[in-house]
Amino acid sequence: MAARVLPPPPLPLVLLLLLLPLSARDTVAAGEDFPRDGRVIDLDESNFEAALGVIDFLFVDFYAPWCGHCKRLAPELDEAAPMLAGLSEPIVVAKVNADKYRKLGSKYGVDGFPTLMLFIHGVPIEYTGSRKADQLVRNLKKFVAPDVSILESDSAIKNFVENAGTSFPMFLGFGVNDSLIAEYGRKYKKRAWFAVAKDFSEDVMVAYEFDKVPALVAIHPKYKEQSLFYGPFEENFLEDFVRQSLLPLVVPINTETIKMLNDDQRKVVLTILEDDSDENSTQLVKILRSAASANRDLVFGYVGIKQWDEFVETFDVSKSSQLPKLLVWDRNEEYELRD
Q: What UniProt keywords apply to this chain's record, in alphabetical order (predicted)?
């Protein structure tokens, strides 16, 4: 009868770790070692995956040491990192020398420097917004916020509005089923704040200028604009209101807002002025705002030659042209001048 060979007893955990390849041991050991105190941490191919495994929100700068833009970005990240670490949903800032660790850069599609990515529970989202510290913090704070916040009191509404700041529009639902808003909170998460108030006083109704429920209030704090939607909360009506309200009634055209137009399919009624900050222009913008509120199927915008002459020249308009000039623009090559 053949002798029965018994399996060897299980190895102690310590011995198992010693038998692991060095890179694997580093991954196991590194999990607890990432600082969360607001410093920008260095990552490489040996510890990147470990960082993703233990850090819920990781903002990564894939850089090259010789890159001028990267050098200018570094102090902005140093300034932003402690603010991001102090959020209710902390964000850790890290950097990877993707010129040295090219395999890591290639894995995440890095083809230029700097490339910025926010990893949310390990899933990367490329960040293309402002790189200034204060704006970067505001943008990333939005990315990690709930899709829709539930507000249970007047004070909660006040705190939500104050904490949201002025960089993004916000949509406040009153007496609205949060399941109706959830879809758009997810879809437009990067572009707006969404909240549903479950309990509120008459003072809030007066402050936000609605007199019945359900009501959805769209607010652009930066432009001091507010619009109101009473329904119907079905089919495409709700999304049309949200989509159209992502932009202010009248858009000042500049390098930032021009990007906002990319996701909007409406034609733009563009008014070209000599100087969009003078008193006459301010009065004209008020008139444009009235026109825009009556016609949400178009985007109304304005730009001053003094503020952005290179953009204005693409429409064959210059300081010698008769101003203001009005045209309808489809954001491609086509535009139509109007008297």
A: Disulfide bond, Isomerase, Redox-active center, Signal
